[in-house]
Design a protein that fits this description.
single chain, alpha/beta, 8 strands, globular, lipid biosynthesis, COA_CT_C, cytoplasm
């Protein structure tokens, strides 16, 4: 029974009409087979309608619905993408200070013909796995492990590729006692100084300093239905209105979706997702990601180290500039 439930697709509220239509198509197909009736044309028409409905739904998602897609339990994770896009992959462990945080994974990989260091947040697939992975919320040891791997990449001239997917850094008293803020701040400073190309991609939920701890790059990309925010909408609502129930209002106000962030200059490129989200066709999403990584690496490799560092600095320096319109 448990196995059957695990295999059932996890439906979001706005996906239920699609599931009902798919179920109706399957029932018609089964009845036609049982009675020896040819309903091929009718089935094709219903399937075309289902595809049209899927396009209509996913082309007009609200910010809150996009947040639901970004948090979907079946959405491809860092390790899923690594397995799909790399030719070789060796995971490396430990921060050399006695910690090996499972919420942040990394290692050496071969991307086409180029050696790279890949690291990213790793969420779980179910409750047990999520608890083991701290729901993708990295501890100070995780960010120190990431820094160790990035320093390794810089030393040996390997580009750095990061995948962002976290609601935020681990918010526990122990994490703060171990220097959570210092670990993230140190990463921010060091990433600006690295000579090698750095490409960051928000693959799911990019939240707060937990995302920024591996988010300083020459190129910052983002999947179409991912979100990137200074704080989770629930936290924002609790702070501003003392009511987490106003999270949908906060979601709209925070401008966390890809198109808003592209217009604001926070990200450089939006990666299209398969109709229905990345979880509906992970391999297609992985192909899109691999193509974008290779294209950007080719461009970045054409600059000198000093040119890249200066562009990286200027890219973040100009964020948040406001201009006042004349009345």
């Amino acid at each position: 029974m448990a196995t059957t439930q695990e295999r059932k697709p996890l439906l979001l509220d706005f996906e239920k009409p699609l599931a009902e239509l798919a179920s109706r198509i399957e029932q018609i197909r089964k009845l036609a087979e049982e009675n020896g009736v040819d309903v091929t044309n009718q089935i094709h028409q219903l399937e075309a309608r289902a595809m049209q409905l899927r396009e209509e739904i996913f082309s007009s998602l609200s910010p809150t619905q996009r947040l639901q897609v970004a948090r979907h339990p079946r959405r491809p994770s860092t390790l899923d993408y690594i397995q799909a896009i790399t030719d070789e992959w060796i995971e490396l462990h430990g921060d050399r200070c006695g910690s090996d945080d499972p919420a942040l994974v990394g290692g050496v990989a071969r991307l086409l013909n180029q050696s790279v260091v890949i690291l990213g947040h790793q969420k779980g697939r179910d409750t047990k796995d999520n608890i083991a992975r701290n729901f993708g919320m990295a501890s100070p040891g995780g960010y120190r492990k990431a820094l160790r791997l990035m320093e390794h990449a810089n030393k040996f001239g390997m580009p750095i590729v990061t995948f962002i997917d976290t609601p935020g850094a681990l918010p526990t008293v122990i994490a703060e006692r171990q220097g959570q803020g210092e670990a993230i701040a140190y990463n921010l400073r060091e990433m600006f100084s690295f000579d090698v190309p750095i490409i960051c991609t928000v693959i799911g939920e990019g939240g707060s300093g937990g995302a920024l701890g591996i988010g300083i790059g020459d190129r910052v990309m983002m999947f179409e239905h991912s979100v990137y925010t200074v704080a989770t909408p629930e936290a924002c609502a609790a702070i501003l209105w003392k009511d987490a129930g106003k999270a949908p209002q906060a979601t709209a106000a925070l401008k966390i979706i890809s198109h808003d962030l592209k217009n604001l200059g926070i990200i450089d490129q939006i990666l299209a997702e398969p109709i229905g989200g990345a979880h509906s066709d992970p391999l297609q999403a992985a192909r899109t990601l691999k193509t974008a990584l290779l294209e950007n690496l080719e461009i970045l490799n054409g600059f000198t180290n000093e040119e890249r560092k200066e562009m990286r600095y200027q890219r973040f320096r100009k964020m948040g500039i406001l201009t006042e319109a004349e009345q």
